[in-house]
Every structure is written in structure tokens, then in C-alpha cells.
Amino acid sequence: MSELNGQHDFHVVGGSFGGSSLAIELLKKGRSVLIADFAQPGSRVKCAGGIEMDSFRRAALDIPHEHCTRGILSLDGQLYDKKIDYAVVDRRDLDRASFEKAISLGAKFARAKYLSHDPRGKKAEFLVGGRKETIPFNHLVLSNGFRHKGRNIFFEPYSIATVEIVKGQSPHPKSLIFIFESGKMNGYYWIFPMPGGCLNIGAGSVTDFPGIEAKLRKFKENYRLRGEVLARGGGVIPLYPSLLPQDGSVTRFGNAAGMVQPITGEGLKYISRNSQPFAQVLSEGGSVNLRWLTSGSFLKLALSTFFLRVCFCGGNSGMSLYVALAKLATKLADWRRI
Ligand SMILES: Cc1cc2nc3c(=O)[nH]c(=O)nc-3n(C[C@H](O)[C@H](O)[C@H](O)COP(=O)(O)OP(=O)(O)OC[C@H]3O[C@@H](n4cnc5c(N)ncnc54)[C@H](O)[C@@H]3O)c2cc1C
Question: Which CATH superfamily is domain 3-46+91-149+242-307 in?
Fold first, then answer.
């Protein structure tokens, strides 16, 4: 019998920033929580680590960060800039610190792989140390990331992004730099300054998945980013929010609920913003669906998804539309041409 079997108000699958943040808020409300993850939280570089300063402060985690006050956008070869207020962290630090905070508040942890669940019988199946275990749950939270089933950008839209942490200085210190590839909807890149004289460099793609590693290599050559590679990572980004994250006694959160802004690829701020309200409703035994559907987060994500899908439908001309609309948005949102 493993740790999984004890009585807990909430079994949370996934001890990354999503699962740990929600666990922290549930624990603050006096609920008991067990976190199950097949990996040690904080062991993988999952993202670029850019998080709006307000949301970073709300998470209240004492970890090194680089304060970025300028956003630079390259659209069709033209540069724009804007004042921003963001933190860049090492994603491993963020996951590790939020997980450790949950543990310090009383969460239990089991190294276990979730396999499936039966919502009516309120039972979930896990793999623990090579053996299957079926355990009863009161409420199951799935914060286990996003799983894509197909490659159809119309029905299962997602993007793939790859990331490296390298030694080096940014060409524009204190800035988040985004570069959109011209002509086709198949590439975007970023250079974020990280604490400790490092850079987070990455490439993402909405349509050209197999070429993504080569794209990052070429991007690094073009920008002469030759620093030593300290770590590599990446993953899949969902491009649509869940309509109904809660189904009875099972709730999805974070990437598992599509809480990612599809245009910028940001998910951390939505986790930080929504963990408290989700925990509030869940700890009171209510349904999060209505709360979610009427929230500003859901509205923003749904509108961005719609916008992106309109662009995807047009193939290369869709990318031209995307760039044209993005240029219009730079005017409306006060970006300055530089
Ligand atoms: C390259 C890249 C760059 C990005 N950059 C940014 C950025 O700069 N800013 C930003 O805000 N967002 C960014 N994102 C998006 C961000 O990474 C996600 O929104 C965020 O990781 C979601 O966190 P999560 O905890 O919901 O899911 P995840 O981080 O995917 O965590 C899921 C957890 O569940 C565990 N798990 C999975 N399956 C099981 C299972 N069957 N059983 C047990 N445990 C399981 C995993 O081990 C993991 O710990 C980026 C994404 C990528 C891929």
C-alpha cells in the first residue's frame, strides 16, 4: 500500500506549478491534499519562465528572477517596443519552490503515475513502483499537463516549443524579445534574460513540428547565440481553453484545462490568477464551471483562440492576416516602432 491510499480531501495529479499552486490554496483553506507525480517536481525545464510581475508576486515564492521592463517584438522584420513589467525565472526553480511550499503546508506526495479514473465509482488507477493500484478519491484534480490526440489544427490545436538555457548576455538587457518568422505561420522565437548571466532561448511552431529543433539551431546561428548550453527542455502548448473544467468530482487545472494564452504561449499567469478562485469554489464543494466561464481569463483565452483559428484557416495568407492584425494591435496597445 502506498501513500496514495490515505484519506485526503483532494488527490492532485501533477506537482508542477499548476498542481502545486492549487494545492497550496486548498491547504490554506484547511483541506488535506495528496500530490501524485511520476517525476520529481522541478526536474525539467518546461518553459521560458516569463511571468507577469503581478502574478509572480501573487505566487509569493522566494526564487531568483530577472526583472524585465521592456518588450521587443519583431514583426515582418520591423521592430517594436513597449514598457512591460515581467519576471523571468528558471522554470525548475518555480516548480520546485511551489511544490516545496505545498509540502511545507502539509501536502503529502506520492511518486506515482496516474493511468485512469472512474468518475462514478470515484476511483483512480495509478502505477506505483511498477504495480497498478486502484484508490478511492473524494475529489480528483487533474493538473497533469496537456495531452494531444491528433495533429489537426482545426480540432486539436496545439503548438510545440523547444527551449534551451545558455550562458550569455541578451542583445537587449532587461527585455523580453519575441521574433515572428515572416511569411508562414510556422515559427516564432524568443530570447529572455535569466538570473545568473544566462539566457532562455526558444522556438515554437504551430504547424511545422518536426523541424523545430533545426529552426532553433538556425535561429541561434543567425543571432550568434553561441553560449554553452546548460539545459534543454520544451513541450506542447494547448491552444484552446476547456469549456467545462469540472466534471462532478473531477477538475482539470493549468495546462490540463487549456489555461494558456494561445497568442503569447503564457500559462503561468493564468495558473497564478486562477488557483485561489478555483480553490475557493472547490473547498466549498461548489462547481468551478460557472465561475470559469464568466471569468476574465476564460473570455481572453476564448477570444484569442478564435482569432488564432481564423488565421490558421488561411495558411500562408492567414499568416499575413496575423501579421497585419498584430501590427494594428501594436498601434492600439502603444507599441513604439524602433
Ligand atoms: C517551450 C515552452 C515555453 C513556454 N514559455 C512560457 C512562458 O514563458 N510563460 C508562461 O507563462 N508559459 C509558458 N509556457 C506554457 C507553460 O509551460 C504552461 O502553461 C505550464 O507548464 C503549465 O503548467 P502545468 O503545471 O499546468 O502543467 P505541466 O507543467 O505540464 O505539469 C504537469 C505535471 O504533471 C505530471 N504528470 C503528467 N502526467 C502525469 C501522470 N500520468 N501521472 C502523474 N503525473 C503526471 C508531470 O510530470 C508534470 O509535473 C511555455 C511552454 C513551452 C512548452
Answer: FAD/NAD(P)-binding domain (3.50.50.60)
Q: How far does CA 111 lie from the centroid of its chain?
A: 22
The total number of residues shown for the chain amounts to 338
Q: Indicate whether residue 251 lines ligand 1 (CB < 6 A).
A: no
Contact 272, 253 (CB under 8 A): no
For residue 333, is pLDDT > 90? no
Best mutation site among 12, 40, 46 for ligand 1 pocket (most ligand atoms within 8 Å of CB): 46
Q: Is 37 in the pocket of ligand 1 (CB under 6 A)?
A: yes
Residue 4 has pLDDT above 60, yes or no: yes
Q: Which residues have CB under 8 Å from 130's CB, separation 6+? A: none
Instruction: Judge whether residue 153 has pLDDT over 60.
Output: no
Q: C-alpha cell of 10?
A: 483532494
